[in-house]
Protein: Enoyl reductase (ER) domain-containing protein
Amino acid sequence: MALLAPSIMSTTSTYIQLDELQKTPTTFHHGLYTESISDFTNDTTSESEPPSPRSEVSRQRVLLLKGAREQYSLVNDHAIPSVLHQGEILVKVLAIGLNPIDWKGPAFNFGIPSLPWINGRDLAGLVLQVPKRSSRLKVGDVVLVPSTDYRDIRKAAFQEYAVATDFNAARIPASTSIHASASVGVAYVAAALALGVSFGLDFSLIKKVPGPNLPDIIKQLNTNDIPDDIREECFASFQDSEKLQQGEWVAIWGASTTTGLIALQLAKLAGLRVICVADAARHGTKLVQSGADLLVDRQDPDRAVEIIRGVTGGKLRYAIDIVGKDTATQLEKTLNPDGHAHLLGLTGLPKERNPGIQYHTVPIKLFHTAPGVGEAMVCWLEDLLHSTNLTLPEIVRAEGGLEGINSALETLRSGSVSGKRIVVDLASPSP
Ligand SMILES: NC(=O)c1ccc[n+]([C@@H]2O[C@H](COP(=O)([O-])OP(=O)(O)OC[C@H]3O[C@@H](n4cnc5c(N)ncnc54)[C@H](OP(=O)(O)O)[C@@H]3O)[C@@H](O)[C@H]2O)c1
Structure:
């Protein structure tokens, strides 16, 4: 499959700034802001009833996955998803951030609840409808939504309109790029839950831009409200002696991934010392600028283990792998297996388990199943963006709208856009 032609991929310089849209709206964006909103804002709509758009706008274009190992197909007359539950919002999608799972799911046949299905995990868009009860959000806000609830097809990103819960949507400041914002959601959720829940790091101690103490929020939850398969992980760091504290080392293997870059920044804000394993020649500048305390090149994994063990005196207790089982197995060797070392694998863990190490997977669904956790996380993300304490990933913008996604995913899969996020633009008018 051919890579995207250069003419339809562009770099970060072309993304839309929200304040630009608002100051100098083009005819198209003027249309977007007025017509779209008035189509869906209906005073009589209640949360428990599906919305009834007042105009003929009730069908939309979506990208459907019709079979495993198939390309996505564009469908022109799919129903616009309905707001069904308390706290849900309707969003007009303006930009879609692509994640590796968007091609891995179909290619390896996982994470697809049924067929045909709509995929897509990261979006940014315009809020068209808000809950009747009080909400942080209002119609006309521009938000980013990490769509971790992939079992709910209404919330998928590969469509023109998506439903979200208000506690999973973060408002994008006017000075921040909508497209770059569309690229950060799932990476932020994974990084914050890994550090804050699995390792128990207290973000509320950060002076510059305090975040939530997630274990404290979890403590208030009814245990039965936490899904069975993540319950153990959610309580993993409840003993104070196991919690990751300011000043400690944490190693990140795969630090140049989007998730790694966000984890590095959150860890540095919290006062940790961070070891980054990555292609140092390619990504070293960015990692050092983001605060890496030690940069270890990934080309010789055994040497990388020796360096990390040497620098930490063999006492490392916390490590996150963001690449896969093999690198997680390497990373495991850097830890002190005295029973108090923690290894989190975002993509896989070693096959053999060492009884001296505690293993973790990120409890990603906590974000959409626990409103208190989701709300605290998106409020912190809003603060991080507003205070510019979080640098967003560099992006490559893919044109072509929903039709461009198959090709953009091939580019992502090929690895040729290393260290950048591909973001698909839906704000430009369809051809
Ligand atoms: N479990 C979850 O809920 C969850 C959530 C988020 C992400 N994930 C997973 O985490 C992984 C990363 O996701 P992402 O979106 O952050 O990725 P991404 O931004 O697409 O990551 C691409 C980067 O991976 C680096 N990389 C590739 N092979 C590597 C290796 N052997 N060692 C070190 N770095 C390597 C590449 O660097 P080079 O330039 O050096 O090749 C490239 O910069 C994916 O597998 C994703 O599915 C899981």
Remarks:
- The longest strand covers residues 88-97.
- Confidence is low (pLDDT under 50) at residues 1-35, 42-55.
- The chain is about 30% helix and 20% strand.
- The CA atoms of residues 97 and 183 lie 4 Å apart.
